Amino acid sequence: MMIPRQLRPAGERVPLRGISPRSAGHKASSAAANLQFPGYLAHWYGSGTAALAAALKLAANRATTTRPEVVMPAYACPDVVSAAVFAGVQPVLADTLPELPWLDPVSVERSITRHTVALLSIRFLGLPSNDQALRRMLGSDGPLLIEDHAHAFPLDMQVRSSADLVVISFGRGKPVSLRRGGVLLQTLGSTAANALPPQPADRSETGVRRLMHRANCLLYNLSIQPAVYRFLTRVARVPVDAISYRELTELEPFPRRLHRLLPQAIDRHRSTGRWREDTIESILRGPDVPWVDVATHSMRMAAADCSTATRTDRLWRYPLLLRSETERDRLFASLWQQGLGPSRMYRRLLSEIPATATYVRSGAHPAAGDFARRLLTLPLHSDVGERDLLAMRNCVDQFSEVVDQTGRTALHRSHKSARVAD
Q: How many folded domains does the chain comprise?
């Protein structure tokens, strides 16, 4: 008898115990254990949002304007607005390229003013970004280029980016997760080093706080197990497809004890393997499929615009764009009903979310809006098994057949109506 299960959209279990001195020997030679990112100076914070806020504060501190602005994608996580608000920097939204999560350089150029201190690019879902094209547009003396890697983590610790600053998050559900923590990577020899705000001191955590964090991690690890996750989402009706805005109140330090847990989280990320990505890519492949495989499409478009023109990092989730919002929601419902962990991500632009709309300056962003309405992601975490992938294949094939049949029926009716009119 099979236990009913529901896959979560993303995330891995959080390690609970650090490496003991007795067992640390075999880890000492790994790059993960050394926590070094070659070519970068690391500044550690209590969250990825705090690390991004520090990057934006750095950009504002080195500028002469009293009204600093940051240009960012109109389609992004609300946390990037929270970081900008804390840093005292005005978020200005720019459009993305058609059917890609990349900033449109033309839209960016129109959005830049004399008050612009930074441009925020995002490695969406672990896909490459067009950082090289943005770098060429900004030049060496323009606003700082910041790249948000909250959805990505380099398997070999080599960050491939032309950005001045790179932010990585270790928050709940991220590729490498500790439920909290983030790091700001600054290129070695950067002339902006003195503009970085003071790094928060690593406060000694009380026993109660450590116990609470451990309890929260235990509950989180339990809640994402497929059987428990099904109960939470189907019976308890816990919302899992909702957008929330979390206000950043301080630049918290990165707890020293989490450094002992980070190597385990990195090793777990490394050991997950890429076979799930390859399988889903084969499931989505076809001559006349009613979707765009965003991962494959972005790799074809990478060329000279990306520092990563090959898929060196693992995807966080597998993205596809349906032909319309209606078809996206229909496939989402089918996959969700079968417990296969789909997600529609943010679903709306930052200017359309009430909690963030009041903070941003925005215009018309048709490509980003189209992307938000059509995007669907499939899970790639370690609980996705071969049986789940087979179920995804069957579900996707059935959906494709229904869409194809509906299209043929509509075409037949159209031709019949034309004959009657004649």
A: 1
Q: What is the mean pLDDT of residues 238-249?
A: 81
Distance CA 138, CA 391 (A): 46
Please tell me the distance from the alpha carbon of residue 140 to that of residue 101, in angstroms, as a whole number: 24
The answer as to whether 399 is a domain residue is yes
> How far, in Å, CA of 250 to CA of 316, rounded?
28
More confident residue, 62 or 408: 62
Domain around 157: 7-16+29-193+203-255+273-416
Q: Could you tell me if residue 143 is inside a domain?
A: yes
- The neighbour count for residue 145, using CB atoms within 10 Å, is 21
CA distance linking residue 119 with residue 20, whole number of Å: 42
Assess whether pLDDT exceeds 60 at residue 83: yes
- If one compares 201 and 334, the residue with the highest pLDDT of the two is 334
Distance (Å, rounded) from C-alpha 5 to C-alpha 78? 30
Cβ neighbours, 10 Å, residue 401: 10
Structure tokens belonging to residue 191: 């002339």
Compute the distance between CA of residue 39 and CA of residue 42 in angstroms, rounded to an integer.
Answer: 10
- How many other C-beta atoms lie within 10 A of the C-beta of residue 201? 7
Q: How far is CA 125 from the centre of its chain?
A: 4
- Going by pLDDT thresholds of 50, 70 and 90, the confidence category of residue 316 is very high
pTM for the whole thing? 0.89
Q: Is 125 in contact with 73 (CB distance < 8 Å)?
A: no
Residue 421 has pLDDT above 60, yes or no: no
For residues 134 and 161, give the distance between their C-alpha atoms in angstroms, rounded to a whole number: 11
* The pLDDT of residue 412 is above 90: no
Task: Name the token pair of 371.
Answer: 């992307």
Residues whose CB falls within 8 Å of the CB of residue 399, separated by 6 or more in sequence, listed in order: 290, 330, 331, 334
Task: Return the CATH number at 286.
Answer: 3.40.640.10
262 found inside a domain? no
Structure tokens at 352: 């359309």
| Domain-located, residue 21 | no
Q: How far apart are CA 118 and CA 130, in angstroms?
A: 16
